[in-house]
Protein: S8 family serine peptidase
Organism: Noviherbaspirillum galbum
Amino acid sequence: MLHLPAPHFRPDASYAGGYDNASHAARRQIAQQLAEKNGLELTRDWPMPALGLDCYVMRVPGDHDPEAMARQLSSDPRVEWAQVMHYFDGLGHNDPMFPAQPAAHAWQLDRLHLVTTGRQVTVAVIDSGVDTEHPDLRGQIAHSRNFIENTTYPAEQHGTAVAGIIAAVADNGIGIAGIAPQARLLALRACRETADRATLCDSLSLAKALDFAIQHRAEIINMSLSGPSDRLLGMYVDLAASRGITVVAAFDERRDAGGFPASNPFVFATAAERDAPAAPFHAPGRDVPATAPGAQWKLVSGSSFAAAHLSGMVALVRQLRPAVPQQELWARLRGAAATPVADAANSSRMDACAVISWAGGTCTCSCEPAQAGITHAAW
């Protein structure tokens, strides 16, 4: 990472001049010199104006240790820092079909939607490709963008399911209703699906998507994925939080502190009910009906889809309280928890109706504790 020169960067994250100028050429020349000096191949470069940095990607020969090379590059005074490329996974798996939408009952969605539908709240879905032509998603996607280089934008399973849980069209006579059916989606493809339908992402594609989401003023960023701690992505998450953007991520019980980005203290980390009791939040994530490519629907399970539920819930709140501070939002979700119930599904529960009653300033539903929902831990 190289710093942008001060004359070319402004606090509003824009450039004072065109980026393809002599200064850009000079910085690329420095990167090329660093690559040649260390026996690396410079493969890509990308400006990161929101952070005031240039990112250069270099290929490390097979007989070199990438971590040691990153440390060596970081010691050069011309380099802000260097890191290895990290890889991230989407969290979810297929389960047998069970025709029920858990949140419709647990959160009394029909009652909530009389008060709020997430109208005009912008949710960035950073994931694999979303089927933008799906009949339950038609008209819901404000922008779609592909950050996987040298590929087209395909309709993929994971991203399509997450998008539908958040914002599928309601009352159209087909499929499902999203938690926030009038939210606006940014469908940002930063992950790709493999032949066995695993969902894989890397540091650079995720950073590009986060940059886009921040620049396009997303109010919520959903990251249904997990991986190792990453300095570059951490800076973007911190920047998003500092601008009042709610970042929701999947909690991975296989990794310390739920993996990254769930481990970031500003992230609303969410796991499926009955999974990962250490997660800050739990939401429906078992046998959830969701949209699938090709005008289809299927059942999905996993923390990825629990995170999508929480993003939808936050969108419902933000329609009513667009400027709600992050800590107050967290506290309100936590404060709506009902008396803990010792059962196989939950360690404690959150009354979604109570949250919307607070956000809307009027009683929603019956104003009695719901039977299932989001669980919580301390901020």
